[in-house]
Amino acid sequence: MKFLKPPKNMFLRKKDVYFKYSTEEQFTGEYWIDGKKIYTKVIKATGVLSKAETSNIKHDIINLSEFVDYDVFVQGDDGLYRLPVVYYSNVTSGTFYDIFARVNGNSIQIINNSSDWSGYSVTAILYYTKNVYHDFD
Fold this sequence. Notes:
It contains no helices and nine strands. By secondary structure, the protein is mostly beta strands. The protein has one domain: Sandwich (Immunoglobulin-like), CATH 2.60.40. The strands form two sheets. A five-stranded antiparallel sheet has the order 1-2-9-4-5, with no helix packed on it. It has a four-stranded antiparallel sheet with strand order 3-8-7-6, with no helix packed on it. Strand 4 and strand 5 form a beta hairpin. The chain is elongated and about 60 Å long. The model has no long low-confidence stretch (mean pLDDT 85).
């Protein structure tokens, strides 16, 4: 893999890079600390949430190396919520996760501990690197 070294007086601001999010995997134009390309993919799902259970949403990423970051949102008639949704209860003096997300090699898991989130859609934006088996990736 080769990197171009721009001249000292040349700068590229992130806002100058035009990027369109997609449900198809795409290269972000950025590289992770190990030199691997960072890819992104948007996953959308409806009808997968209910009350107090874990929902698995497949992401179908092939040759996944590691996740760099992710954002997950749920949206319904009353608004958009960024996960995790937490609340504080004085009854037991603790903070509780009502709904949160985690990602693994196969899926996005939405863990719902109490509230009824049925009727809400899920949007996840995944950022990840891939195992590369040839020089042109």
